[in-house]
Design a protein that fits this description.
Helix content is 41%, strand content 24%. It is of the alpha/beta class. Among the domains are: 2-116 and 228-268 and 288-300, 2-enoyl-CoA Hydratase, Chain A, domain 1 (Alpha-Beta Complex); 121-187, no CATH class. The chain has an eight-stranded mixed β-sheet, with helices on both faces. The chain has a two-stranded antiparallel ribbon with strand order 5-8. A two-stranded antiparallel sheet has the order 6-7. The longest helix is centred in the middle third of the chain and has 22 residues, at 180-201. The termini are close together.
Length: 338
């Protein structure tokens, strides 16, 4: 019954909006997160080809982010099939999802809708190595552009270092801990995302000064990538074309999110112990993301084999419970039965 109810909600939203609706949920279930990525393009293209050329397409979007270029290209793809492109935001549309929203003629946000800054984090092979407690190997930490700027700002504003020699020493200290090529990649990434955001805003906004203000705010002026932009701030302070859905539309959009939440278990952290229950092993299918339109459903799933076992850890006399996991299958499939 779940799919029938989701499709009924999609149709009702289409009726109230005079549009075709395409749903995309990149799940953020803790431990089973997914991101906006290039693998969705053939799937989106299939849905859009079935939909055909439309006057108005609404993208129902839930995501905490992903690949910048994937978000930018996704807007361009959908716009090939419509005159008017809009984004429906029931709850989270962060980072790359916010970038997608910038390309929309209208952004419909429910009262709990969220946007965020779009300043990038760069994962570079020469990025700083971080050794985490209990981990056998160090991992490469992403470098956030705002963290780099904040370090220099700390030296200038808080410690009053203004002379060229002092600033040079600060930069040398930074470069000795973060490879210069990684720092260069951070700066290039920042310039690129500002360029992409401006291009997307140009689809529907001809005011260059307004575009520059929006881009600067989202890439420079909110201090943290985790900053949450509510509907009022997005409309009144950023000047985005925010539309408040009426009560009927809000109910339908939130109900549809609840159905996707039930399918993907978005608010249930992944715990192998809970999956196994009283069994010591088993194979489990996890639905992690979905793309859906009026007659087609694609789901990103992971099939895992999980085994419970006792693990002897150094310095601990009593064995502890551990889990062995093996991915049997993973990817997008068309599944009109979920």
């Amino acid at each position: 019954m779940s799919r029938e109810l989701r499709l009924e909600l999609l149709r009702k939203i289409e009726e109230t909006r005079g549009s075709k609706v395409l749903g995309y949920v990149a799940g953020d279930r803790r431990g089973l997160e997914t991101k906006i990525a290039n693998d969705v393009f053939p799937i989106f293209h299939k849905h859009l080809m079935k939909m055909g050329r439309q006057e108005k397409i609404d993208l129902f979007l839930y995501s905490t982010g992903g690949l910048t270029m994937a978000g930018y290209a996704l807007v361009n793809l959908v716009r090939e099939f419509c005159q008017n492109f809009n984004v429906l935001i029931p709850f989270k549309a962060l980072s790359c999802a916010t970038l997608i929203a910038l390309g929309a003629d209208e952004i419909l946000m429910t009262p709990m809708g969220q946007l965020s800054p779009i300043d990038p984090s760069v994962e570079h092979p020469l990025g700083p190595a971080v050794q985490l407690p209990g981990q056998p190997q160090a991992r490469i930490a992403p470098v956030n552009v705002e963290d780099v700027n904040a370090f220099v700002g700390l030296a200038k504003d808080e410690f009053g270092l203004q002379e060229e020699d002092s600033i040079t020493k600060v930069f040398n200290l930074l470069a000795s801990n973060v490879h210069p090529l990684a720092l260069g990649a951070v700066q290039r990434s920042r310039e690129q995302i500002a360029f992409l955001a401006a291009n997307l805003l140009n689809y529907h906004c001809g005011d260059e000064q307004r575009i520059e203000q929006i881009v600067n705010t989202l890439t420079r002026e909110r201090f943290s990538h985790d900053y949450i932009i509510c509907r009022r701030e997005a409309k009144e302070l950023l000047g985005l074309n925010i539309v408040e859905p009426n009560s009927e539309q809000t109910t339908l959009i939130v109900d549809l999110l609840n159905e996707y939440n039930e399918l993907l278990s978005l608010d249930v952290p992944y715990n192998p112990e809970m999956e196994l229950g009283t069994s010591d092993s088993g194979s489990f299918l996890f639905h992690r993301a979905i793309i859906e339109s009026e007659d087609t459903t694609h789901v990103f799933g992971t099939q895992k084999e999980i085994r419970r076992m006792e693990v002897q850890r150094p310095g601990i006399p009593i064995p502890v419970v551990g889990y062995q996991e093996r991915i049997l299958r993973e990817g997008w499939t068309e599944d009109n039965s979920v």
